[in-house]
Every structure is written in structure tokens, then in C-alpha cells.
UniProtKB/TrEMBL annotation:
Family: Belongs to the major facilitator superfamily. Phosphate:H(+) symporter (TC 2.A.1.9) family.
Domain of life according to the entry: Eukaryota
The protein's name: Molybdate-anion transporter
Upper lineage: Eukaryota, Viridiplantae, Streptophyta, Embryophyta, Tracheophyta
Pfam families hit by this protein: MFS_5 (PF05631)
Keyword terms: Membrane, Transmembrane, Transmembrane helix
Residue intervals passing through the bilayer: 6-22, 43-62, 74-96, 129-150, 170-189, 201-219, 285-306, 318-338, 344-369, 390-406, 412-429
Length: 460
């Protein structure tokens, strides 16, 4: 393997270590023992859930190829997963608000375990069922757990600023360290122990089962709005009304969809971007490097969120702009660097520049997750939190399905240019959100409901 990869990984490791070890009292939040116990319990569960997710990611495509399926059939399986998340995600999110967030988290564990079990079958229909189950589980992973955390945090009366500490630590460990360890674990299971490409899915089931036991034994239930017996259609209308009536919520959903859409597109494109002529690149090591970059970003986010004088709405404008520049680098290198036509070989000079840009983008991703969680906790009404969060994922899933369906229709540079434009738009919308937030406090959902009740007789 080229020394360049070790150099980048080593430099990132040194920066992350320096950031963590150099934290001062200004970068830390003083908390209570009760909160620390609560935080550690959630982070343990979240890390187990993410381990179950990260173990599967690198081997889904590979497993399908070992069963003899081609690119088109595999593409349809992936589209089914994102389509399932889009169609059923909002429904399960609403059920989480109505039936309980703890139950939704339990449902996530069971659904994802069942999805892992289907990977043992080479039959296309069973694999399709697994992708549909996986799509439902993904919607729950990115809504139910955060909704439970925010509601439980507030119910226990903890300081609002402490919530950002839980977010940043969860992302630092769950989306950083756990991702790296999961990649190494999967590599040992498949390549070292020769247990086959389905073994990471069995390991994921074990981690999910452990997390399920912890949830059942230590979590309490919380709801969105249990006082009203609402059906799903009423909940959808209420969530849509909240988005339409509060520009801050609409802007938050827009910037989230634009950033995550670009992020998921990047996931599909980084491999062909770094090896356009089938260059030999260490995919697993590069993946670990990206996750280390994400850890760097989450470490920076923890410092930023710890400073009450610095508003998350302000610095995220810069993060989105930097992310746009990072994903525009492949477009620049295509014009400024003479492309190599040599097949195979090592990574090119252009590839090295792009890799550095991609690492910077992953650092932006590391800042994005805890920061967007913080903003969601401020602006999304508690009564419909899971429903609205899954509403935000509808345009994201549509976008990813379109990209997957047309991935071969456009050059890579066009795709990266499109993502860069999306991120610039996100930066502009974030600036708008920041200006509105400075003028008004987050809308109180109770006041919103009271206003609806007052106007209801007039509309009758």
C-alpha cells in the first residue's frame, strides 16, 4: 500500500488526538452524575445500533455479487431499500410518536435482525424483502432514537445545553470509532477467518440483540402526544401544518435534505472518482480514513457546541460552503490536471488531491450530524418529532433513488458539480435560517396547538 495513505491516516490521527487532549474548561460542559449515567447509557445503545449498521454496509453489494446478481439487479435492490424508507418511513415515524419511541427502537432492532437473516438466502424475492425491512429500519434509526433521547432528556429536567454533549459524543463514537472498528471486524470475519460475506450480517445481529436487551431493561417509554387519539392521517396533516407554518422548520428540512442527498451521492461516487482507470486502491483503509475524518469533525463540533456564545446556525453556513468546495475538487482536477490513461497501477496525483478533499468533506459530515441534531431539538415540536424527521427524509430518498437509477447516465464530474451546487444552496438557506432565528425564538408547539383550537370554531 502506498505511503500516502499511511501519511494521511497518521496525520488525521494526530490531529484528532491533539483536539481531544487539548480541550480546556471552555471546551467542556460541567454536568451532573445523573446526566452522565443517562448519557453513557444512550451512547452505549447508539454505538451498538450503529455497529449493527456499519458492519453490513461494506458487504451488501459484495454479497449480492456472490449470489450471481448483476449491477442492474443489485441497483433495483438498493432502490427498494431507499424506496421503502421513503414510503414506510413516515408511517413508522408517526407510529413512534403515537405508540412510543422505546417501542419504535425495539422495532428497529427486530426489523434489522430480520433483514440480516434474509441475507442467508440467495433468492431474489427474499433479498428484496430484506431490503424493504432494512429501509424501514433505517428510518427508525435516524428518527426514533433521537426522538426518545430529546424527550427523555427534557422529561428528566437536564440542562438543554447538555443535549449537545450527548449528540457530539454519540457521533464521535457511533459514526467514527465504531465505524472503524466495524470495518476491521468485518475484514477479519470475511478475509482472515474466511467465514464468508454473510458473516458480518450475523455479527450485526448479535450487536443489535445486545442493544435490544439494554433497551428493554433500562429505557422508559415516552410519547409524542398521547393525550389525543389521532389517526395517522391527522398526524401527517399536523406535521405538514407545522412545517408550513414555521419557516425555520421548513428551512431546516431543506438544508438537511440537500446535505444528506449530497452525502449519499458521494458514497456512491468516491470509489470511481479515486480509481477512474481501475487503479488499485485500498477501499477498506480509505473507508477507515474517512471515518477518522468524521471523528475529527465531531471533535470540532463538540468544542463549537460547548460555547453558548457561538450559535450553531451561524457556523453551519461556513461548514456547508466548505463542503461545497470539497466536492467541487473532482471538477477542478478534471480541468487542471492531465488525466492518466494507464489502466491499473497506483492512485494518481489527481486522485491524491481528491482524497484530501474527500477527507475534508467527511470532517464536514462529522460537524453536520451533532449540529443538525441540536437544531432539530430546538425547532421541531416534540409532539410530532419522529413524524417530521421522517418527512425530511422523503425528498432525500427520492433524490437518492433518482441518482441510483441514473448513475451511469452522467459523467462523475457532473454529479459532483450538482452536489456542490446543492451544498451552496444549503449554505444560503442556512444563512436565511440564522437570520430568522436571531429575530425569533423557536416556535412553541403548545402555543401553535392552542392557536389552532382557537381558530377551529371559526373554520367550522
Amino acid at each position: 500500500m502506498e505511503p500516502f495513505y499511511f501519511l494521511v491516516f497518521g496525520a488525521l490521527s494526530a490531529v484528532v488526538a491533539a483536539l481531544e487532549l487539548s480541550k480546556t474548561s471552555k471546551d467542556r460542559i460541567t454536568t451532573s452524575p445523573a446526566f452522565n449515567s443517562f448519557k453513557n447509557n444512550y451512547i452505549l445503545v447508539y454505538s451498538l445500533m450503529m455497529a449493527g449498521d456499519w458492519l453490513q454496509g461494506p458487504y451488501v453489494y459484495y454479497l449480492y455479487t456472490t449470489y450471481g446478481y448483476g449491477k442492474g439487479e443489485i441497483g433495483h435492490l438498493f432502490i427498494a431499500g431507499f424506496g421503502s424508507s421513503m414510503l414506510f418511513g413516515t408511517i413508522v415515524g408517526s407510529l413512534a410518536d403515537k405508540q412510543g419511541r422505546k417501542r419504535a427502537c425495539i422495532t428497529y432492532c427486530i426489523t434489522y435482525i430480520l433483514s440480516c437473516i434474509t441475507k442467508h438466502s440467495p433468492q431474489y424475492k427474499i433479498l428484496m424483502v430484506g431490503r424493504i425491512l432494512g429501509g424501514i429500519a433505517t428510518s427508525l434509526l435516524f428518527s426514533a432514537f433521537e426522538s426518545w433521547l430529546v424527550a427523555e432528556h427534557n422529561k428528566r429536567g437536564f440542562d438543554q445545553q447538555w443535549l449537545s454533549l450527548t449528540f457530539s459524543k454519540a457521533i464521535f463514537l457511533g459514526n467514527g470509532l465504531v465505524a472503524i472498528l466495524a470495518g476491521l471486524c468485518g475484514n477479519v470475519l470475511v478475509d482472515t477467518l474466511n467465514l464468508g460475506p454473510v458473516s458480518p450480517f450475523d455479527a450485526a445481529s448479535c450487536f443489535l440483540a445486545i442493544g435490544l436487551v439494554i433497551i428493554l431493561s433500562s429505557w422508559t417509554e415516552n410519547f409524542g402526544d398521547p393525550s389525543e387519539n389521532k389517526d395517522l392521517l391527522t398526524q401527517f396533516k399536523g406535521a405538514a401544518a407545522a412545517i408550513a407554518s414555521d419557516e425555520k422548520i421548513a428551512l431546516l428540512g431543506a438544508v438537511q435534505s440537500l446535505f444528506e442527498g449530497s452525502m449519499y451521492t458521494f458514497v456512491f461516487l468516491w470509489t470511481p472518482a479515486l480509481s477512474p482507470n481501475s487503479e488499485e486502491i485500498p477501499h477498506g483503509f480509505i473507508f477507515a480514513t474517512f471515518m477518522l475524518s468524521s471523528m475529527l469533525g465531531s471533535s470540532l463540533a463538540s468544542r463549537l457546541l460547548a460555547r453558548s456564545s457561538l450559535k450553531v446556525e451561524s457556523y453551519m453556513q461556513i461548514v456547508f460552503a466548505v463542503a461545497a468546495v470539497c466536492l467541487f475538487i473532482p471538477v477542478l482536477t478534471s480541468f487542471l490536471v492531465t488525466p492518466s490513461n494507464e489502466k491499473g497501477g497506483v492512485i494518481t496525483f489527481s486522485g491524491c488531491i481528491q482524497l484530501l478533499g474527500f477527507c475534508a468533506f467527511e470532517a464536514c459530515v462529522g460537524i453536520f450530524w451533532p449540529s443538525i441534531m441540536k437544531m432539530r431539538s430546538q425547532y421541531i415540536p416534540e409532539e410530532a418529532r419522529s413524524t417530521i424527521m421522517n418527512f425530511f427524509r422523503i425528498p432525500l430518498n427520492i433524490f437518492v433513488c433518482v441518482v441510483l437509477y441514473n448513475v451511469d447516465a452522467f459523467p462523475i464530474t457532473v454529479m459532483f458539480g450538482m452536489c456542490s451546487i446543492f451544498l451552496l444552496v444549503a449554505s444560503i438557506l442556512q444563512k436565511r435560517l440564522s437570520s430568522i432565528a436571531e429575530k425569533s425564538k423557536p416556535q412553541d408547539w403548545t402555543t401553535h396547538k392552542e392557536r389552532e383550537m382557537e381558530t377551529a370554531p371559526l373554520n367550522a
